[in-house]
Amino acid sequence: MSIWxxxxxxxxGFTIGGPIGALLGSFLGSKFSGGVKSINFSNENSQQxxxxxLIILSAKIxxxxxxxxxxxxxxxxxxxxxxxxxIDNVSKVxxxxxxxxxxxxxxxxxxxxxxxxxxTALVEVLNILLYIAEADGEASKPEIKMIRExxxxxxxSDIEINSxxxxxxxxxxxxxxxxxGVKPSDDIKEIRKKYINLSKTYHPDLLINxxxxxxxxxxxxxxxxTINNAWDQIxxxxxxx
Length: 241
Known about the structure:
By secondary structure, this protein is mainly α. It has one domain (3-240).
């Protein structure tokens, strides 16, 4: 069954409070009570929360510049691999999130709390939000500002956020050192250690165990390809220096 089909039908299989619970409660006509629960996620539950995080934050990002374009809506469908059979349900959650009075901050804070021990998932949320923001050609300044602020709420460093932005560039324009989060003056052995660590952390085959749904892995694969290319470029640069 598609991860998207379990969001509404299964209602996550557990109780969750906070702004996400209130949003879902308003959608269903009844509120979840209490604050954020201490949840022991199964892999499936973690994937459901990940999917919800993408829907809610995508809704906030899509109206950051005051305009929700058709290209952005199509990108949300395509880049999140939402099947036609689930579009109605996902669209309902998206529209509730887009129209509610809360800003993006309370949702980002709750998502950060839920994934406080799973930084990999938070990085992937931000990675996919960047792809969605660029759907109509180029992310606007308000979208970029919001995405950076979400990253800071997620307790990601400037280096980690800048790396995600750098990955978006074409291979001839990107700075491979920024992609890997290292400096040109760093020893090649230290850079290699950083590359291996990134490869182990963000390899698509391992992301499912971190709660990343298979439906959104394609953007993670693109990021991994760029990390590999950055390492190849740095090796060549070090040999000629």
